[in-house]
Amino acid sequence: MSKSVLTIDGLQYSNWSRAIFEEMREGGVDAVHATLVYHENCRETLLRFGEWQRRFEIHQDLIVPVRQASDIELARESNRVGIFFGAQNCSPIEDDIDLVAIMRRLGLMIMQLTYNNQSLLACGCYEAEDSGITRFGRQVIREMNRVGMLIDMSHSSERSTLEAIELSERPVIISHANPASFHAAKRNKSDEVLRAVAQSGGILGFSVYPFHLRNGPDCTLDEFCGMVADTAELMGIDHIGIGTDLCQGQPESVLTWMRNGRWTKAMDYGEGNKANAGWPRPLSWFSDNRHFNNIAEGLYLKGFNNDEIEKIMGRNWLRQLTEGTRPQAGAVY
Amino acid sequence: MSKSVLTIDGLQYSNWSRAIFEEMREGGVDAVHATLVYHENCRETLLRFGEWQRRFEIHQDLIVPVRQASDIELARESNRVGIFFGAQNCSPIEDDIDLVAIMRRLGLMIMQLTYNNQSLLACGCYEAEDSGITRFGRQVIREMNRVGMLIDMSHSSERSTLEAIELSERPVIISHANPASFHAAKRNKSDEVLRAVAQSGGILGFSVYPFHLRNGPDCTLDEFCGMVADTAELMGIDHIGIGTDLCQGQPESVLTWMRNGRWTKAMDYGEGNKANAGWPRPLSWFSDNRHFNNIAEGLYLKGFNNDEIEKIMGRNWLRQLTEGTRPQAGAVY
Fold first, then answer.
1. Does any domain span residue A274?
2. Which residues form the signal peptide (chains A, B) (predicted)?
3. Is a pLDDT exceeding 70 seen at residue B120?
4. In chain B, whose CA is at the least distance from the CA of A331?
5. Going by C-beta distance under 8 Å and a sequence separation of 6 or more, which residues neighbour residue B226?
6. A78–chain B Cβ distance below 8 A for any pair
7. What is the predicted pLDDT for the residue at B198?
């Protein structure tokens, strides 16, 4: 595969640095969905935006903010990485529907309705009971549709996800997860959910986070690409992409923050456990941003043609962002 | 005077309503600098933006947000009022320089460095001692220059204002005040300050708030226009405009908020006093947005020609916004 394949990663939360941005260029990455926050409230979310403003100033030769999907092509032309933002939780909007448009204006293109736990909007995939989309959640879905903020159900539970798809007038995405049929995990998705996502016009970004893979860190590239092939059958070639969930260079304290936020005094191990509390060992064929070519190669060996590989590696994400982040016709905000 | 004179008001904080927006259209107002906040912190400032988002949705036939100066001409063409935002204090940015760019992105085009009291940036016009621009203030001036946010010194004191002008690479404005030579008041400005503002490329917006006028509510239109003529001599015809300080329909509680914020337990009466604590009686020739034509007429009778009147009524403000709110060349934010 040539390096010129448009490459968009549907989720990362790395310990951002010049070295990582350089690796992104080396790996031919054109744009990345960067997680802005996990549990940060409104004010704290602005701190994160502020940190990114400084990165954009300092590293302007390497990275560029994506204010609209077409900026990704400009980033590519100038040999830089476009950064677009998403929140893994609805904490940035607190209890205030007006913050949806405000966050969108600041560049938040994607928001998850929940992160593992029950939120004010919906239920997370670790809760025992899923009562579906809340009253506030229904209003927020409508507002996200209006302003063009993509609804991401990666960490949400089954019923809430299906209801969100039902309620939303626009596509619903799962930026980073895998099919539960490939590997049973609370974070992976049922065929019913995946079919509904595809029918909504949404996308699944395949995760290379070992907890989401069969055989964990020992999952082979061939197994991974087999999963992609099976999912292409299930969802259609236009509704799949990459969402690595790469958390490069993050200390364990960040993992603890993701899992525990401010909500528990007891330690929550998320997808790990007490004996296996830290970051999982990385895959041999994908440990940093220089390895996207391995995935493209693997897909080629699995029998995908160039057009299909281009869709999976980036074109589908570009279409999703182009269509999904445009404000609704006539929307004033 | 015909109604077609471009009319921009350099400051209002009215009790916004459909009736007021309709009066603006009736009065031929094309754009207004609307005060967003007085003492509100960052999070509270977002509440105010949220309220305006709703107004823009509900009253989209009458008002439209000004995201860049050229939107004012679009507003005029569609017979609507363009609203551009300013903060009367630096409270929205708290102690965080990154919030300058964030607030600018949200549409804050103008910020005062102080409101009567000492702030983290500079000294207000009611303090006994003015030690000038602070360390943080110097950084914020540079950042406001960078992102294109106009520095407004309306409520600042003499030394701080002169230092801000010295430090700023871009024009500094006084959106709403009058010359102290016309009427001695803590809020009115010395000839030295006014000359420096003009030399910086900035503008003075003449206030019709009775506390800023000779003879208060009894100031005649002829006296007001005489003041304009004298200031045109002092500052030049390109550096003066209107900044009414109209606070139409506001209850006394809002006046108390402006004056007292959260900073005092004793009552502060601002420009009033215990015996005269409320809103001043309005002028006979300017009490609401339908009366801008009176000012234009008065200027005509005072001997200004049409070109000069157009500059004062709106063209100077439009130029100021066009030049002053553009990000600096190469600025990334």
1. yes
2. none
3. yes
4. B57
5. B302
6. no
7. 98
> Predicted confidence band at A162 (pLDDT cuts at 50, 70, 90)?
very high
Q: Is residue B171 part of a domain?
A: yes
Instruction: Report d(CA B151, CA A256) in Å as an integer.
Output: 43
H or E segment and range at residue A177 = strand A172-177
For chain B, say whether A54 makes contact (Cβ under 8 Å): yes
**Min Cα–Cα distance to chain B from A84, Å:** 14
The CATH number for B121's domain is 3.20.20.140
ipTM of the complex: 0.94
User: pLDDT grade, residue B268 (50/70/90)?
Assistant: very high
Q: What is the 3-state secondary structure (H, E, C) of chain B?
A: CCCCCCCEEEEECCCCCHHHHHHHHHCCCCEEEEEEECCCCHHHHHHHHHHHHHHHHHCCCCEEECCCCCHHHHHHHCCCEEEEEEECCCHHHCCCCHHHHHHHHHCEEEEECCCCCCCCCCCECCCCCCCCCCHHHHHHHHHHHHHCCEEECCCECHHHHHHHHHHCCCCEEEEEECECCCCCCCCCECHHHHHHHHHHCCCEEECCCHHHCCCHHHCCHHHHHHHHHHHHHHHCHHHEEECCCECCCCCHHHHHHHHHCCCCCCCCCCCCECCECCCCCCCCCCCCHHHHHHHHHHHHHCCCCHHHHHHHHHHHHHHHHHHHCCCCCCCCC
Domain of residue B84, residue span: 8-324
- Is A332 inside a domain boundary? no
- The pLDDT value given to residue A333: 83
Whether residues A53 and B99 touch (CB distance < 8 A) is answered with no
Does residue B1 surpass a pLDDT of 70? Answer: no
For residue A221, is pLDDT > 50?
Answer: yes
Span A54-71, average pLDDT: 97
Question: DSSP state, A239?
Answer: G
What tens digit of pLDDT does each residue of B147-193 get?
999 999 999 999 999 999 999 999 999 999 999 999 999 999 999 99
Q: Is A169 on the interface with B (CB under 8 A)?
A: no
Q: What is the pLDDT of residue B333?
A: 83
- Does the CB of A257 have a partner CB in chain B at under 8 Å? no
**Is the per-residue pLDDT at B71 higher than 70?**
yes
Residue A281 lies in a domain: yes
Of the residues B64, B94, B105, B139, the best mutation for testing chain A's interface (the one with the most A CB atoms within 10 Å of its CB) is B105
Q: According to the model, what pLDDT value does residue B2 have?
A: 44
Contacts of residue A46 in chain B, CB cutoff 8 Å?
A: 42, 96, 98-99, 102
Distance from CA of B180 to the nearest CA of A (A): 40
A281 touches chain B (CB under 8 A): no
CA distances from A170 to A142, A167, A199, A308, A326 (A): 9, 9, 11, 24, 11
